[in-house]
Design brief:
Blueprint lengths: L1 H29 L24 H7 L51 E4 L19 E9 L5 E9 L5 H9 L2 E3 L1 E3 L2 E3 L1 E10 L4
Length: about 200
């Protein structure tokens, strides 16, 4: 019921507004276009006028600005009572009658320490001889010279002799800090290490 009532009131209102707008626009279009009379153009000059100046008079009238005079230096103090005393405090150094041996607190002795450890390469020829699912291990023993070189490499134990030469070559390329005793580099004998060989997955 409400929608019918709105339809009955809305349709005549819309027709009335549309007709009024149509008549208003027709009236506006039918009137001739009146242009205003052309007026004289306005002349604007934005260029600044440059006046010639007489440089001879300008140089004569120029005066250098006067600078402020620096402040006078502070007065010198000649009173000797103002000077600080430079004698200082004089005291006798106390003597302690005690025989103490505190040591140096630093022990330079040390065992051989590794500097460069290059891991061994897995030999291609040993892939067929390796045990399935388990890695191989080679125990080597060697000496370290006072220069830090590895020498006298010996195979102590091995799970597969195919890996012995690879472990020996790797150990010979290692570098050490030599053993130090009483500030002297010495031989370090009987160093043992274990090389583990595992096929990378």
């Amino acid at each position: 019921m409400g929608s019918i009532f709105r339809l009955v009131l809305g349709v005549p209102g819309a027709i009335f507004v549309t007709g009024f707008l149509f008549l208003f626009m027709a009236t506006m279009i039918s009137q001739p276009l009146r242009l205003e009379e052309e007026s004289d153009p306005i002349d604007l000059s934005i260029t600044a006028q440059i006046d010639d100046t007489d440089l001879s008079n300008a140089n004569q009238e120029f005066k250098r600005p006067t600078l402020d005079a620096p402040p006078p230096p502070p007065p010198a103090v000649n009173d000797p009572s103002n000077r600080p005393a430079l004698d200082g405090v004089r005291a006798q150094i106390p003597t302690i009658n005690a025989n103490l041996n505190i040591g140096s607190g630093f022990n330079p002795d040390r065992d051989a320490q590794p500097l460069v450890r290059i891991p061994p390469q897995y030999p291609d020829r040993c892939q067929g001889r390796a045990r399935e699912g388990a890695g191989e291990a080679v125990v080597v023993q060697f000496d370290v010279t006072p220069e830090g070189e590895v020498t006298n490499v010996v195979i102590v134990d091995s799970t597969n002799s195919c890996f012995n030469s690879a472990a020996r070559r790797a150990a010979e390329r290692w570098k050490y800090q030599p053993k130090i005793v009483d500030n002297q580099a010495e031989w370090r004998r009987g160093v043992q290490t274990t090389f583990n060989f595992q096929i990378a997955e």
